[in-house]
Amino acid sequence: xxxxxxxxGIDDAPFTFQERSTTIIGVxxxxxxxxxxxxxxxxxxxxxxxxxICTQMIKKSRHQQQLKAIMIDGACLGGFNVxxxxxxxxxxxxxxxxxxxxxxxxxxxxxxxxKNFKDWEDRWELLQKGPLHTIPTHHNPMYIKCAGISVxxxxxxxxxxxxxxxxxxxxxxxxLIASGITRGESYGKA
Length: 190
Fold this sequence. Notes:
Elements: E1 6-12, E2 21-30, E3 34-44, H1 50-60, E4 67-73, E5 76-77, E6 81-82, H2 85-92, E7 96-100, H3 106-116, H4 120-128, E8 133-135, E9 142-147, H5 151-161, H6 169-183
Parallel strand pairs: 1-4, 4-7
Antiparallel strand pairs: 1-2, 2-3, 5-6, 7-9, 8-9
């Protein structure tokens, strides 16, 4: 696989639950070394539009045809607005992977969904689609789900795009930009 493949990293901006929507940022990078483009859109907090909004954002980008992978920081954007990575991959014809530093606590997630959503079963079902893979790194492991790509290919893309630490640069840079535009200065770990 070429080291300069174009990868789109997506993360949401910090928000409060008093807000109706939050910004999502996408960054197109060549591997993990060169930032080519920044994309922006809005998703409804705890809504059901994340998959559709991500699809629209990608299809409107002049880089769509060159993208080889989409990386999303976690399975949800804007709270529990779950991204259906199978649908996103099929509608854009681009492989998709979710990336998290910490292993999701399934019991806590299910309890939060049951407590806060009438349609919790639908959201839970989406979150349960596909196996969660543990990817060893030089530091702590990361956890991924993928659609439209094998786990081995996903590992290769993660290795190409991770400069230091655990998180691939497209997701890390999307996180920095999203938190920076919202808070005035970026903070925290992707």
